[in-house]
């Protein structure tokens, strides 16, 4: 069993993790907030705790949590006896992220299929768009099944 990481090690992990999320399209401040909440022992933090831990301003925290709430990756709650909002990261946040990405694949498939219909399946453009639609459908269906299988074995608490 290893000892608890130092605050500096925690900060370095959060920044590296946030960089990975940012490289895959998550806004950088939201990625930092999500990374910090992920390593919170309770999975909840207040705006002031996030600002202090990440050394960022309250308005920066506000914008990030607003975006994360909007996409359903965190929730706002009041703890008994507290007047402050606490933000809680979803236990299944990574499945939720992939579900959102998978929904986008469904939209990509529909759009490219509509393009193939528009240009005609017997044209080079139509064939290219139809193949893209088939690819997006293939990935979408497989990822949907994988998420379903994951959720069967890992119910959300």
What does this structure look like?
The chain is mainly α and 157 residues long. 68% of the residues lie in helices and 8% in strands. The chain has six helices and three strands. The chain has a three-stranded antiparallel beta sheet. The longest helix has 30 residues, at 124-153. The two termini are 26 Å apart. The mean pLDDT is 94.
Poorly predicted ranges: none
Strand content: 5-15%
Principal-axis shape: elongated
As laid out across the biggest beta sheet, the strand order is 1-3-2
Describe the sheet with the most strands: 3 strands, antiparallel
The assigned structural class equals mainly alpha
Determine the fraction of residues in helical runs and give it as a percent range.
Answer: 55-70%
The separation of the N and C termini measures 26 Å
Order of helices and strands: HHEHHEEHH
Number of helices: 6
Rounded radius of gyration (Å):
20 Å
Q: What average pLDDT do the residues reach? A: 94
Number of strands: 3
Task: Describe the structure concisely.
The protein is 68% helix and 8% strand.
What topology does this entry show?
Blueprint: H1 7-23, H2 28-38, E1 44-46, H3 47-54, H4 58-70, E2 74-78, E3 85-89, H5 93-119, H6 124-153
Antiparallel strand pairs: 1-3, 2-3
């Amino acid at each position: 069993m290893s000892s608890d990481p130092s605050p500096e090690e925690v900060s370095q992990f959060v920044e590296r993790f946030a960089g990975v999320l940012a490289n895959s399209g998550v806004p950088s401040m939201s990625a930092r907030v999500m990374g910090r909440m992920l390593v919170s022992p309770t999975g909840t933090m207040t705006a002031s705790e996030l600002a202090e831990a990440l050394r960022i301003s309250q308005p920066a925290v506000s914008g990030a949590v607003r975006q994360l709430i909007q996409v359903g990756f965190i929730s706002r709650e009041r703890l008994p006896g507290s007047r402050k909002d606490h933000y809680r990261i979803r236990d299944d946040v990574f499945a939720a992220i992939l579900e959102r990405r998978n929904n986008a694949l469904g939209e990509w498939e529909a759009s490219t299929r509509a393009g193939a219909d528009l240009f005609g399946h017997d044209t080079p453009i139509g064939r290219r768009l139809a193949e893209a639609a088939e690819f997006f459908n293939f990935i979408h269906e497989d990822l949907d099944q994988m998420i379903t299988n994951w959720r069967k074995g890992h119910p959300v608490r």
